[in-house]
Amino acid sequence: MTAEIDPFQLYGTRETEVRPKRLTAGRLAVDFKDGNLRTITYDGTEVLRAVSYLVRDRDWGTYAPRISDLKIDQGDDAFSVGYLAHCTGPDDTDLEIRVHISAKAGGAVIFEAEAMSKTGFETNRCGFCILHPIVGVAGTPVSVEHVDGRSEDTRFPDLIEPWQPFKDMRAITHTVMPHVTAECRMEGDTFEMEDQRNWSDASYKTYVRPLALPWPYRIAAGQSVRQRIVLSIADKRETLTTPASVSPDGRVVTITKGTKRGTMPSIGLIITPEEAKTTFEARAVLAEIGPQELLFHFDPNAGHDAAAFEAFSAITRLHAGTSTLEIALPCRQSPLAEAQEIAAWMHAAGFKPDAIIISPSVDRQSTPPGSQWPACPPLEEVYAAARSAFPGIRLGGGMLSYFTELNRKRVPSGPLDFITHCTNPIVHAADDLSVMQTLEALPFITRSVRAIYGDKPYRIGPSTIPMRQNPYGSRTMDNPAGLRIPMANVDPRHNGRFAEAFALGYAANVIDAGLECLTLSALTGPFGVIAGKNEPSPTGGRRPIFNTVATLARLAGSQWQECASSDPTAVLSFVTVPAKGAPQLLLANVTHTAQQVELGSFHPAEKLKGGVLTLEPYMARSIALMD
């Protein structure tokens, strides 16, 4: 990270992540961080995204274990790591994990762990998690060895699988590069794989303990739980070059023109009854952004009632664009009776949205494999009730939660005018790298939606770094200390340049889906582009994400052109051609280090030193072009 930049400007907090320690064994390199292995590469090519030992609580929250007795030995062609990890659960229960990791040149990476509790320990999952990358891997051949010894030659899913593509796994082998394969062998329990792209994670996740088994479960006092992962690389290349030690310093990312073109989506802002008053008070900022769409959220189970529509109506009178009402229908009575009551409240308040999104409230909760679907009226009945109660208004459906739920419970699209869902990048992990890597999964999500629903008009959002609702547990996680934690309803990075770059990178990776509307923030509150009086902000009022949202709103309806990046893990970009003015090249540096960018055949209106543009860490920037 550039030393001169205050971490608070980047992350909304001065607490910085500890950078991983790079360990090597010949052509193999790994990043060791927080007791686990990340970015496992062979000859510079990513083999696995991670091998981690994780302990999850009954709400699927991930424990952050205390690590002690850490010993790291890096030799000339080998390394080893050993440590103890300690987890403290409810009622002073404890779990201790003894870990040893080793690797040597030409040999295997071995990661073994033994967990034991003196008190007994409740958990939803305790054991290894292996992440395969998705870019360049999706749709490619893979061999799976099952626990009964049977082998299966198949492929990694291309379109996103709603359920586990592989079960009862003992080993998995895939091609890393021509003539180089990697076998990951998993011992000590039965493993299965889920397609984590469902949650916008950029990985296929192989995890311990099948979801069909009961959870939470209890590790008995004194019970030893042993597991081992063995990663073996088979290199059959005839000619081997000297392993390159590539440093990002001095590297140049090249941006070139692509072939895809389209129209920029409308930009929306989410407004809840809780934030309606502060949104109205910030009406000058609302007018400055000029969003095309306001998305009003209404949930009777959260205590929302007729008073919400008075506030919503006042805001719509300030707004020149369109509005949509998002309804989480309780379904305690008949869908028609509940929809008619809501319609009566709207009519009394003079609130007239242009569209309705309706979904049973229970459909926001995930139904994992092996679980029973919750009681719910048929969606056809829900949609018919909405048509009757809100005549002449566009009707949207899908999920008020994430693509996961839409993929697993595919709604009947015939009665609908558009499909919608959200995403969230901190479902499983909340470190900076994992959050930014979720951008890689977005094109797979939009392509999968199009494969299911064809050319049906399509909206995404609200999609923010903080989580507004937890489909996988009883609650979102409170975060008063402003830490980087999964499933948190407040995330410090939403206050910093990190969120500004994330939002622009998000737009870059979904615009080719032909979206009708994209919602990436609220106006106020923990998801807002402006901070409250007692909320931290690097700029004192407007959060950096304001710049991205305002820019995208200004460009809505203009034409865009694809840009190809020589390293999309570092820099994402696209070109827009507004109705008036010069074409704009929009770029986002999605890393914590400065990036040197060469603009290829683009001709910027400003003169660049040496023909290269420097993008500071997590910088989002727009550059006027001459052509």
Describe the structure.
Mean pLDDT is 94; it is low at 244-248. The protein contains 11 helices and 33 strands. By secondary structure, the protein is of the alpha+beta class. It folds into 3 domains: 7-235, Distorted Sandwich (Beta-galactosidase, Chain A, domain 5); 252-256 and 568-624, Immunoglobulin-like (Sandwich); 265-556, TIM Barrel (Alpha-Beta Barrel), CATH 3.20.20.80.
Q: How many E strands?
A: 33
Helix content range? 10-25%
CATH topology of the largest domain: TIM Barrel
CATH superfamily of the largest domain: Glycosidases
Distance between the termini: 34 Å
The low-pLDDT segments are 244-248
Question: How many separate structural domains?
Answer: 3
Rg calc: 25 Å
Shape: globular
Structural class: alpha+beta
Secondary structure layout:
Blueprint lengths: L6 H5 L9 E5 L2 E6 L2 E7 L2 E12 L9 E9 L3 E11 L5 E11 L4 E8 L4 E3 L1 E8 L8 E6 L4 E5 L10 E12 L2 E8 L3 E5 L8 E5 L8 E3 L4 E12 L16 E12 L2 E6 L4 H6 L1 H7 L3 E6 L7 H11 L5 E8 L5 H15 L5 E6 L18 H11 L4 E9 H6 L9 E5 L9 H6 L4 H12 L4 E3 L36 H14 L6 E6 L22 H11 L3 E7 L5 E7 L6 E6 L5 E4 L13 E4 L4 E5 L3
Helix pairs in contact: 4-5, 5-6, 10-11
Kindly list the characteristics that best describe this protein.
globular; 3 domains; TIM Barrel; 8-stranded parallel beta barrel; Beta-galactosidase, Chain A, domain 5; 33 strands; alpha+beta; 627 residues; 16-stranded antiparallel sheet; Immunoglobulin-like; 37% strand
